[in-house]
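#struct-pred
JK: can someone run the complex with L7CU2Q4V? inputs below
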Amino acid sequence: MQTLTPHVYWAQRHGDIYLRVELSDAKVLHGIKPMFLCWTAQGHGAKGDNDYEFSLDFLEPVKPEVSHRSTQRLVNVTVRKQEQRWWDRLTLQERKPLFLAPDFDRWLDESDAEMELQEEEKINKVSIESRIRKDPYLGLKKGYLFMYNLVQFLGFSWIFVNMTVRLFILGQDSFYDTFHTIADMMYFCQMMAVAEVINPLVGLVKTGVFPAMIQVVGRNVILFVIFGSLEEMQNKAVVFFVFYLWSTIEIFRYPFYMLACIDTDWKLLTWLRYSIWMPLYPLGVLAEAIAVIQSLPIFDETRLYSIPLPTVLGSSFSFSFTLKIYLVLMFLGLFINFRHLFRQRRRRMRSRKRKMN
Ligand SMILES: CCCCCCCCCCCCC[C@@H](O)CC(=O)SCCNC(=O)CCNC(=O)[C@H](O)C(C)(C)COP(=O)(O)OP(=O)(O)OC[C@H]1O[C@@H](n2cnc3c(N)ncnc32)[C@H](O)[C@@H]1OP(=O)(O)O
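RT: done, structure tokens with the ligand placed:
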């Protein structure tokens, strides 16, 4: 038996490549690399029973999984593009291989394929919406989330505006009594923020519980344990930076969520929600780390939260040791949440790009 090349017909969509190979009773083997497909089969083609083979150097990378569907007359091969993009041609080399021809049964030009994509998206949206509509408590859930976000937005806006005005009027002096003017409102907002761990837990919002837990536990340790329980920390400038960094993101995040509750999306607000965390988050963690470091000697001196030990093991177990471990956890938490937010941003921006197309 000699190895022959079968006739291959191709067409594309934004996400897929369709290949139709004219072979019957084919037993297929294939190998695929990011930009290369090697396809071999034993089957019945134009020249009878033979080994058939072809290879393609793709114009752009494709995914490693290939799906085959053999019928009595032909083999349909679907290859997924790595990026959802229209290709100018199938192969890397400009000259089309002789065995390859357009599959006019499936052929669409770019604008028709876009229309097909939009139709599919519309159908998906309708089916998702009809599934959602089945939830009898949806209105109640959205109402609760809207009110929660509104209250948080008002709280953090009060904090942000108050601190900004005081900064303009008092300059650096405002740093030192931030805690006494802002703490009550911050206590209120951060206690409410515990709901952000509960919401995904009970399925009210579709996001991970762990990132929210890191965020809420992380902030509340700083607020209640470091600032709240040590008077010596309360008139330090670091309180200003921690509170200012926290409230800056929240005056964008909560209105973004409020709009999401009423299925509205403002481009600039979405961009701000998914972008300004990039400088703010590391700065926030840095400010929090400075607060923890400044509190270590105070905990050592006051022995607050120290655990008394039997005399053979020393006098007591200082809370500052726990805080040193916590410092390491903070940077681990920063890494986990930075990655989470980065993924959320990419997902959001990608879905926006698709909507615009
Ligand atoms: C287990 C305990 C371990 C303890 C370890 C302690 C380690 C300590 C580490 C400390 C690090 C914390 C540092 C931090 O305090 C510093 C700062 O905050 S500095 C200031 C800058 N900070 C930020 O930018 C972070 C802001 N916070 C957040 O973004 C969130 O809290 C976070 C959990 C990090 C991410 O939020 P989420 O996962 O919810 O992502 P999305 O916003 O994209 O939302 C996903 C979808 O859910 C919908 N959603 C979410 N919440 C709501 C809501 N309240 N109302 C309505 N809808 C909501 C949202 O619309 C998205 O929907 P869709 O998918 O349809 O777009």
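RT: quick notes.
The chain has eleven helices and eleven strands.
Residues 135-356 form one domain.
JK: thanks, will look after standup
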